[in-house]
TrEMBL record:
Family in the record: Belongs to the serpin family.
Residue span, Serpin domain: 9-124, 179-222
Name used for this protein in its record: Serpin-ZX
Highest taxon of source: Eukaryota
Amino acid sequence: MDIRESISKQTDVSILLAKHVVSTKAQDANLVFSPLSIHVVLGLNASGSKGPTLDQLLSFLKVKVTEEINSLSSQLVTLVFADGGSLGGPRLSFANSVWVDQSLNFKPSFKETVDNAYKAAASHCEEAFCWTCINNVSPNDEARCEDCWPNGCCSLIHCIKRRASKAKVGIAQAELPAVEATKEVNLWAEKETSGLIKEILLSGSVDGSTRLIFANAVYFKGA
């Protein structure tokens, strides 16, 4: 698909999101939010979905197949979100993370999409908990359901991390209770925003019925 057509569709989705946020959350107040962050996260979600869920996501994103979203996201994270901080330019961090139950492993096709379309590198997550690179999953431990996302997961353990144009994918070795999962997501947000956002999830936001958490963080420093 032509990049201009893809960007035009992405812009239409962004305007739709902006209208909704302004009308429901930002009346008589200042507003700052990132429609592109939502677009990329929904694209990742679509890449791991099928059936009615996939149909609804594609309809909202105004595309017919996930390849259209993946192609656009690949170009955006490579060209737009290249962090120039090390060269003395503006510092830009664009990170997404999703947690699901450790009992389900990602399908190889989904991991391939993360690796190739989103330029993600599978490696160990250097976090407070013990993580194992998804490359180390044995063939017998591959995904045990038709979708990448589980229907009955409760704890929030899988991690996909995007930082600028580099990502980490891992599987936690032990279940985390809701309080610890909330703390882990908040620590992630604090790290990715250089301490500006310390609490993205309020106490009680996560409980035993939680199935999936997507988190996004955008950090920009111009000088």
